[in-house]
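Audit log entry. Action: structure prediction of a protein-small molecule complex. Ligand: flavin mononucleotide. The ligand was supplied as SMILES and no pocket hint was given, so placement is left entirely to the predictor. Protonation state taken as written. Sequence taken verbatim from the request; no trimming, no tag removal. Recorded inputs:
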Amino acid sequence: MQTKTRRQLATPGAIIPPVPAMLLTVAGHADEPDEISVVFSFVINYSPAQIGISVNHEHIALQRVRQHGEFVLNVPVVSMIAAFDRADMNSKKSADKFAITGLTRGKASTVNAPTIIESPIHVECRVFDEVTLPPNRSMFLASVEATSVIDGVCDEDGTLIVKNVPFFGMTVGSGEFYTMGKRVGHIGQSVGRDDIKY
Ligand SMILES: Cc1cc2nc3c(=O)[nH]c(=O)nc-3n(C[C@H](O)[C@H](O)[C@H](O)COP(=O)(O)O)c2cc1C
């Protein structure tokens, strides 16, 4: 087999495709409206459910998440890509992001934060730690307090029915959005297990 040549990129990059990008919603403050912001997310733990996000210090969402300590991650789907990009392109602007994006405001069941009705999955989060990350970000670690899904997204056991949710991720390294392709495996297949869900 011929070995392919590997080269170093001139600039190191976190080229790890794909990564989940979420629409974060957080309550407003005083006269400032509720905020929608695009954030990468990562799963810290499945049980208890905990997630992490990082927010740029220039983004309106940073102050709001600090103030309230609660937010919702709204899983975006393909039909929301235009709104997703509009939220992203206005992340430093204090404005009514529901008006800018055309998305519909809902209310979280457990935390004090708005939701996005169009999103099929709402993950309601409460911050338990903030880590300042030089030069310009803060990482928030949060517990998942409640999760709601629209009909058809999960079965009776809460298992995600992947084909029913046209979600997408961004390919870091090219800045493109891709939806899921075909199923190519599952956890535990090498030992004949199909009971691990995460
Ligand atoms: C897929 C995706 C993920 C992003 N994730 C984050 C994030 O985790 N934290 C954050 O503060 N901003 C995030 N952003 C917003 C960008 O950092 C940036 O604010 C936005 O693309 C606007 O770029 P500009 O400030 O150069 O105009 C994300 C944007 C996209 C498209």
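Audit: result stored. The mean pLDDT is 95. Residues 21-191 form a domain with the Pnp Oxidase; Chain A fold (CATH 2.30.110.10).
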